[in-house]
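Quick illustration, no need to memorize.
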Amino acid sequence: MHPFAYVRATDADQAVAVVAADPAASFLAGGTTQLDLMKDGVIGPDRLVDISRLPLRGITAGETTLRVGALTSMEELAADPVVGRRLPFVREALLQGASVQLRNLATIGGNLLQRARCRYFRDPAVDACNKRAPGSGCAAITGIQRMHAVLGTSEHCIALHASDLAVPLTALDATVHVQGVNGPRSVPLTRFYLQPGDTPQRENVLDHGDLITAVDIPLLPETARSHYLKVRDRASYEFALTSAGVALVIDDGRIEQARVALGGVGTVPWRARDAEEILRGAPTDTAAFRAAADAAVAGARPLPGTAFKVDLARRTLVRALETVAGAHS
């Protein structure tokens, strides 16, 4: 492992100032992915600023929104009674996103910032990775593609966004609160992540030294039903081939409100707004669900190794919608 200096931050402003002043510094919270990347030589910060003891932990429920501190663990959020009652698909995504051991250590802020699960990005022996070395190429495009994206890709990168939690949070229009050198700001999660384009090394809108402090999660209406469906090669400790986070408000057999996002298929958590438009006002039948699923993947650009994901994503979304509609009836 690359040698590094260790600093324990005493407050958020100090943490931001130290990291912002040092291009080779980074924050350390749960470290469940970060330390693996350091051990493998994928990243090598010269300085780690430990924020794990800052007062950025806890869950506060308002009438319409849940505020979650960035250092709240995945397990703490999954166990929250308001989440279980008003945001069941968030709870499902958390429980399916990691083992119990990891959920007790991994933070909400860290989960949203986890790096791509591309085997070529995570192997320093592979020279061609535009995320690690901009301009070097993308080995995945001509390599093993099965765990890569079909939506939001570019000729420079097809790496998949791996967070399960980010899928329902994207569907909910969650907001990320950030502390930077110029003060606090808020960013809608739907604008937080960046598609690779010709700068795949930049994965989100954060500047160096920016610190996530909290996430606001809008609560679903009392009458809403939701579900997170994750399709994977095995039931435990595995990343999604495809996933769908859906929430519906249904009245008299018709859909009044719909929120839909896909995981396992996009370079960012994929909000399926065209699918939502089709679902609003539609009956809760398979024809409407299939039309919505077709719209959700209409912009897919699969490669030979990812072509199966297009139909699998359709089927995943249809099944998730059927599950929610069946629970309502």
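The longest strand covers residues 242-251.
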